[in-house]
Structure to design on (381 residues):
């Protein structure tokens, strides 16, 4: 933290007024249910994005990153960033600038921002939402704007949808802002209501490993948007507001002629049930039984939603062969990370098995992170 404050002074020639942090997240279960008004169960990581910031009186947002390098300057008030056609080397700055433009309507203004992150980029751990949420807290505090956390999460989602052009749901921003240590967040993405569910793998003699498969992804591409459009088309054909509302799965599948849409519906409906079942297991203290839920989710994402990728499938298969209780891909798909639930005393064996599977195929070695449910976004200084 003190290092970031010092770096801010060196970058901008004045002192930071504060430092704010927002975590990345892992979604334990409930994938691609968020934009279908469904249920999700994420938790915050100890890793995330920190922002040192100070106000400006010229209505400008000046953003620098310790990872990306360079400086991006843009008005805090204006149209959407996506409509301005920013080049790829400035794409990272669309998130804080977009957040500033949404919050400008609530009374915030210009700011100088220095960004630092210890989240691996492209790993599907929601570095973009962490950046939005850290920026949002900084701007609100700097300008004395009070917005409750659930509403702020929706504003951050809006920034990503409208400003960046990424049609994400509400989960990532909610997890970053609302999570608490030792818990997963049961979130109803339709109502925005949430509940803290105890989740402490080490206390149960377990380890939850996040495996960065090193297959990077970019969700602003077409595949994610197509999945969302397919879900919306299926809901319209079934006469429901969202796939969350499908109660009779067999009947719904019988009414859809397109086999692709049938597969999408089957995943979303059964994934919502898996979230509910997982919450029940956690509340009953049956953490070890989550493995079956993770395995079922991965198979559904691979075969019904068709968004897994070879590195993810190989990681899950190697982990299970090494004795892990369960595993699945996480995130939007087509690259990113996998989570693996295993007995703590078997974690090293599982890591070695996954690494060996990658080496056998000539792939870049995976990276591992211990996924510990941690605190949500906050001001550090």
């Amino acid at each position: 933290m003190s290092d970031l404050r010092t770096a801010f002074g060196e970058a901008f020639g004045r002192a930071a007024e504060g430092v704010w942090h927002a975590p990345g997240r892992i979604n334990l279960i409930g994938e691609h249910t968020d934009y279908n008004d469904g249920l999700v169960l994420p938790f915050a990581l100890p890793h995330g994005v920190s922002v040192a910031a100070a106000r400006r009186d010229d209505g400008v947002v000046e953003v620098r990153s310790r990872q990306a390098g360079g400086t991006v300057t843009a008005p805090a008030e204006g149209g959407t960033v996506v409509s301005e056609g920013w080049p790829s080397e400035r794409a990272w700055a669309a998130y804080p600038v977009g957040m500033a433009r949404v919050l400008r309507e609530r009374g915030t203004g210009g700011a100088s921002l220095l960004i630092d992150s210890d989240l691996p980029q492209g790993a599907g751990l929601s570095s973009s939402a962490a950046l939005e949420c850290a920026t949002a807290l900084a701007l609100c505090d700097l300008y004395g704007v009070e917005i409750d956390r659930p509403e702020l999460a929706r504003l951050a989602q809006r920034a990503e949808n409208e400003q960046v052009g990424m049609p994400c749901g509400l989960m990532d921003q909610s997890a970053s802002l609302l999570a608490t240590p030792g818990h997963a967040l049961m979130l109803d993405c339709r109502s925005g209501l949430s509940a803290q569910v105890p989740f402490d793998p080490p206390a149960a003699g377990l380890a939850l490993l996040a495996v960065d498969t090193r297959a990077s992804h970019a969700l602003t591409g077409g595949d994610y948007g197509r999945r969302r459009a397919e879900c919306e088309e299926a809901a319209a054909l079934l006469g429901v507001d969202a796939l969350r509302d499908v109660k009779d799965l067999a009947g719904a599948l019988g009414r859809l002629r397109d086999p692709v849409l049938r597969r999408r519906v089957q995943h979303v409906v059964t994934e919502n049930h898996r979230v509910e079942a997982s919450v029940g297991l956690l509340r009953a203290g049956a953490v070890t039984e989550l493995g079956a839920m993770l395995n079922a989710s991965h198979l559904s994402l691979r075969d019904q939603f068709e968004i897994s990728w070879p590195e993810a499938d190989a990681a899950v298969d190697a982990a299970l062969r090494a004795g892990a209780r369960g595993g699945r891909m996480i995130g939007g798909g087509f690259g990113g990370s996998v989570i693996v639930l295993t007995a703590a005393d078997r974690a090293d064996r599982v890591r070695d098995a996954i690494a060996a599977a990658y080496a056998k195929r000539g792939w870049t070695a995976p990276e591992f992170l211990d996924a510990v449910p941690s605190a949500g976004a906050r001001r550090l200084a």
Q: What stands out?
A: Residues 141 and 184 are 26 Å apart (CA to CA). The radius of gyration is 21 Å. DSSP finds eleven helices and twelve strands in the chain. The chain has a mean pLDDT of 95.
